[in-house]
Amino acid sequence: MKLKGQLTDLIIMLVLTVTTGCTSTHTETDSLMSELLNTIQNRETYITQKENRLDELRQALYSASDDEARFLALGDLFDAFRPYNTDSAFAYCKRRETVAFKTGKPEFITNARMNTANVLGSIGMYKEAMEIMDSIPYSSLPGYLRPYYYYINRTVASYLMDFSVRKEDKDKYLGVFEAYQDSLLSLCPPGSLSYVIDMSDKYNRKGESEKSVAILEDYIDNNEYSTHDRAILANSLAFAYKKLGNLDKQKKNLLISSIADMQASVREYVSLRQLAVLLFEEGDIDTAHEFLRIAMSDAQKCNARQRILEINDIFPIVNSAYLREIQLQRERQHTLIIIISILAVFLLVAIRWIWRQMKKTKAAHGQAIAANNQLKQLNAELENFNNRLTEANHSIAENSKIKEVYITKFMEQCSLYIEKFDSYIKSLNKLLSAGKIEDLRKNLKSTEMIDGELKAFYRNFDTTFLKLFPTFVDDFNKLLKPDERIVLNKDGLLNTELRIFALIRLGITDSVKIAQFLRYSVTTIYNYRVKTRNKALGNRKELEERVMEIGRQRL
Fold this sequence. Notes:
The protein has helices spanning 2-21, 28-41, 43-62, 67-81, 86-103, 106-122, 126-134, 146-162, 167-187, 193-205, 209-222, 227-244, 247-264, 271-282, 285-302, 305-433, 437-445, 448-468, 472-478, 496-505, 511-518, 522-534, 543-547. With 555 residues, the protein is mainly alpha-helical.
């Protein structure tokens, strides 16, 4: 068994490799096939989840406080086991019947007997299932059990119809099936899953598969459903597309249904078998054989005789083709071995000749390599020198540009300050000559002129700097976290934080000099720099180095 499992994993991995390798022709169906193979490979994870859920339901049964609670807990276990292990489901049915009789409630007894009939139909005991259902008077059923009554009768009739040999028997059970299906449809709400599935089936039998597709896709798009229900819906949709002759969409939905079956950890399913048949018809014998083997293994573990019989109809054909394919591959391998052996002889001769030629050219090749290495070293040194020279030229050009602009501005500013200082002295002399000592004292104590000149000085600095570095603010903000970025005032001037880093960009990095320039304390300047570094995007220690690069290429 262990060897067989390893072989299965190997086949799945090989199919995965082939499927995922052809990226140029990947389609939605290819992706779904890859997903299915991955799901099968990780099947044990889903099985473990299923077993954990069953343990929880068993614990709920053990914790039930009375017979009525035990009856409901047994119903949950029956629902969980029916598509997973029919033997266990049957055992829980019998226990449920026993508990139902203990409660004395007729509807509980009827419900439990119908559960038993349902399981008996799944394992191929159609006569026994029908006997149970025939013994239940429909008029005695409560309303909530009547759809279940028709569902079981409809399902057993479909099994009998599928496995009848004579045409008259098939027609007979078809009539029974349709009658029960119509009764079930009359009781199910039009928007329910049961209604949609049976109505879809009815449309297909009437040759109206377009309506079947429409009702199924509408339900899938507008409702929530479990993974197991998704498998049922996709399988029904695949059958409708098969009726319409759309094999691509049939295959797609069979893949979706098979994936959902694997993920829901059910063992009584039909999609993987139907997908295997479709793949066999397409010529993918290896994958078809592996899928049928998995489906048969699950059906046997579930003891779903109905599914075993269905698989047995096709498995011998696929297995025979699979064995023929293996035999053909062996014959091809034998032929390839002969060809490879002949080629190996020629290869040995060629290798010997090449070895002799290599021996003759080895010395010359060594000299060429040495010369080439020396040339590479010289080229690397030359490139390094050129890079340093280019960097130095850029730095010189940038410094020259900045110095040129600021020297011009400095001379203009000095001239302006001389004129203003001369005017200021004249105004003070006038006050002194007029004997207005008090006015003179007020002017000398006032800081209004200095404050105004500082504002003008900073405005002039901001304007000049932004002309040199028009994108400085945007480039600086890119170095900060999005929620820490700075927005200029309406007047378009820099704030203190931006002025500090503008001075740094100009090469003034000493906090003492920056403090003197901006008329702040050294501690304040230091705090501003630390606070801004903490806002940096990336490594905060590199912020000022990155600021120095702003506008470098432009200059």
